[in-house]
Amino acid sequence: MKSSPIPVKQWLKKLQGEYRNVARQSAFYGKIASASSARDFQWVRQLYYLSCDFTAAVALRYGNCQDPRFRDAFAEHASEELTHPADLVVWMREFGFMGANEDPMSIPQNLETLALASYFLRSAVRQPIPHQIITLNLMIEGLACDFYSPVNAKLGELGLTPRGYWAVHEEADMKHEILGLDLIPQCDPDSPAGKSYAQTAWEVASLWVQVFEAWGDVPLEPAPGTSSRKIIRLLACLIFGRAPHDRWLFA
């Protein structure tokens, strides 16, 4: 008797959980835990760029979507992200991360931030809906859940009250990460479509780790402890048994 296929939502959520566990090994989280002042959070200026481009990506996705099965969910997600970049600017000005009249983009984004933000936009503009859901919902919103919880706790501890932008993310991200996942076409993990889904998840997780290592000023070269190169290899080995593209690894 032929066994029933594993629902795509089930195996993708399992894979996402494994990637989240590995990503939490990033040295960035250790730096959050040991942060002692606002100086340890200067990376929020880079976060602004991600917020802008993520908001743009989910808006573009809704605008381009012609499939009625997804339009309502995509519209809801886009509307809930709409004010986030402006909310972050309000918070940054309140706590001295930027001047009252300073342009939020007066500090350039680094290449790692640009790479991840560009991936958002490319997914929304050029990729099919399953790719968009895996990128903009399952992976980014799931990884973000692990980011905002410890950051918010540390900000509160240091008197940098995590209201507005920060407060809304802890609640919304858990809802957004599963948005649309039930509507992705069914496939087995070992099928061509399943391997494509897993490849997308790995790419997003790898770019996310490189962003965090850059924000924390952690070298990308091998070093004592956990480096981004080691983490990315762990991510790859979860599904490929090896890293599929050495160019991602700075080898």
Beta-strand level of the residues, as a percent range? Answer: under 5%
Assign the CATH class: Mainly Alpha
The CATH H-level superfamily is Heme oxygenase-like
- CATH topology title: Heme Oxygenase, Chain A
Mean pLDDT: 86
Order of helices and strands: HHHHHHHHHH
Radius of gyration, rounded?
A: 18 Å
The helical percent reads 55-70%
State the major sheet. Answer: none
**Low-pLDDT residue intervals, each spanning 5 or more residues:** 219-228, 238-251
Rounded to the nearest angstrom, the distance between the terminal CA atoms is: 47 Å
Structural class designation: mainly alpha
| Shape label | globular
The number of E-state strands comes to 0
Count of discrete structural domains: 1
In DSSP terms, counting alpha (H) and pi (I) runs of 4 or more, how many helices?
Answer: 10
CATH architecture: Up-down Bundle
Description:
With 251 residues, this protein is an all-alpha fold. The chain has a single domain (8-249), classed as Heme Oxygenase, Chain A, CATH 1.20.910.10. It is 65% helix and 0% strand. It contains ten helices and no strands. The protein has helices at 8-23, 27-34, 44-64, 68-81, 84-94, 111-126, 129-157, 165-176, 192-215, 228-239. The longest helix is centred in the middle third of the chain and has 29 residues, at 129-157. The chain is globular and about 55 Å long. It starts with 7 loop residues before the first helix and ends in a 12-residue tail after the last helix. The relative contact order is 0.17. The model is unreliable at 219-228 and 238-251 (pLDDT under 50).
